[in-house]
């Protein structure tokens, strides 16, 4: 084992993988390969999965734990898992698996799976960050972005996990306008996994123009006012494929003080915007008592 490896072998490394919310999502066109062109504003909540890495001599392996990880079982922790695919890319950047330690990755999944808040993409991005740090591979940001892009359209935005405008198929990132100093979000998932390719297939064929973004939103009301003029092009298709999405949207719309209600990504997770994070947390508390079968989270975003 190299000296470099010995230095890291006693440490445990960790990264959080935050939930990504598409505040609006316009399908603006379609590429020849079938991928859709998007314009979307993505923000990140503190709700997250957690990825731990304990270096060791044995071949790298992944364990899944947490509310949504344990039920998936070890079948989901093989080489097809996006975290393991990300690990293989960082190994390759280091010159091969033999050049870096193996060990144990533990993914504590607290975000619902296949739910439109980028859990799998955030896990993959966390693996790229975590293992390049632990193995001291340090690819430049362009190389890291390329790896992310190969892992999925939503992975690049999850590398930085802060508000950004997504274009292209999701990989073209630019700065988001300044977000309001005070604003809260409530996330709700009804527990039905939704297939992204199916939702894209089932959406109506309309294309929606790119949004005209301001420089900043001074308060939550102005953000919500702007968002009310935008849409999620995948929401109607998701309501058809997964009718409980409509129920969640209706329940969110009835919560006092909400400023806007919408679905994120290809669903099924929906969100409501509130004037501040304390109001969103209070709404989450009440809703989780009334609907214990739903996954509910409230707080701030960035
Ligand atoms: O890139 P990712 O693997 O996350 O995409 C999953 C699927 O979602 C793609 O295979 C494609 O069917 C659909 N998709 C799309 N346009 C995008 C992103 C995803 O059609 N911009």
Automatic annotation (TrEMBL):
PANTHER family linked: 4-DIPHOSPHOCYTIDYL-2-C-METHYL-D-ERYTHRITOL KINASE, CHLOROPLASTIC (PTHR43527)
Gene3D superfamilies (alphabetical): 3.30.230.10, GHMP kinase, C-terminal domain
Keyword Acetylation carried by entry: no
Annotated EC: 2.7.1.148
The keyword ATP-binding belongs to this UniProt entry's keyword annotation: yes
All copies of domain GHMP kinase N-terminal, residue ranges: 81-159
GO terms, molecular function: 4-(cytidine 5'-diphospho)-2-C-methyl-D-erythritol kinase activity
Residues annotated to bind ATP: 112-122
UniProt organism field: Acetobacter thailandicus
Keywords: ATP-binding, Isoprene biosynthesis, Kinase, Nucleotide-binding, Transferase
Main EC class the enzyme belongs to: transferase
Family: Belongs to the GHMP kinase family. IspE subfamily.
Taxonomic superkingdom: Bacteria
Protein name: 4-diphosphocytidyl-2-C-methyl-D-erythritol kinase
Span of domain GHMP kinase C-terminal: 232-289
Role summary: Catalyzes the phosphorylation of the position 2 hydroxy group of 4-diphosphocytidyl-2C-methyl-D-erythritol.
Active-site feature positions: 20, 154
Biological pathway: Isoprenoid biosynthesis; isopentenyl diphosphate biosynthesis via DXP pathway; isopentenyl diphosphate from 1-deoxy-D-xylulose 5-phosphate: step 3/6
């Amino acid at each position: 084992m190299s000296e470099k490896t010995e230095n890291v072998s006693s440490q445990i490394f960790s990264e959080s993988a935050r939930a990504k919310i598409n505040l609006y999502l316009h399908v603006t066109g379609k590429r020849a390969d079938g991928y859709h062109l998007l314009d979307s504003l993505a923000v990140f909540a503190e709700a997250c999965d957690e990825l731990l890495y304990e270096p060791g001599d044995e071949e790298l392996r992944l364990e899944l734990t947490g509310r949504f990880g344990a039920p998936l079982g070890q079948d989901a922790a093989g080489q097809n898992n996006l975290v393991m695919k990300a690990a293989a890319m960082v190994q390759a950047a280091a010159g091969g698996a033999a050049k870096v330690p193996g060990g144990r990755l533990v993914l504590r999944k607290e975000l619902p799976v296949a739910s439109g808040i980028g859990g799998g993409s955030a896990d993959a991005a966390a693996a790229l960050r975590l293992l390049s740090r632990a193995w001291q591979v340090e690819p430049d940001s362009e190389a890291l972005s390329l790896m992310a892009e190969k892992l999925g359209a939503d992975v690049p935005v999850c590398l930085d996990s802060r508000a950004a405008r997504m274009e292209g198929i999701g990989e073209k990132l630019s700065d988001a306008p300044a977000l309001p100093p005070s604003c809260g979000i409530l996330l709700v998932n009804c527990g039905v996994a939704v297939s992204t390719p199916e939702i894209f297939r089932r959406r109506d064929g309309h294309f929606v123009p790119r949004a005209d973004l301001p420089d900043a939103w001074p308060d939550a009301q102005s953000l919500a006012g702007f968002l009310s003029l935008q849409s999620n092009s995948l929401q109607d298709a998701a309501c058809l494929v997964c009718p409980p999405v409509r129920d969640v949207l209706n329940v969110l719309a009835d919560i006092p003080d909400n400023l806007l209600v919408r679905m994120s990504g290809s669903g099924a997770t929906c969100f409501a915007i509130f004037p501040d994070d304390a109001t969103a947390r209070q709404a989450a508390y009440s809703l989780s008592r009334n609907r214990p079968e739903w996954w509910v989270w409230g707080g701030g975003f960035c």
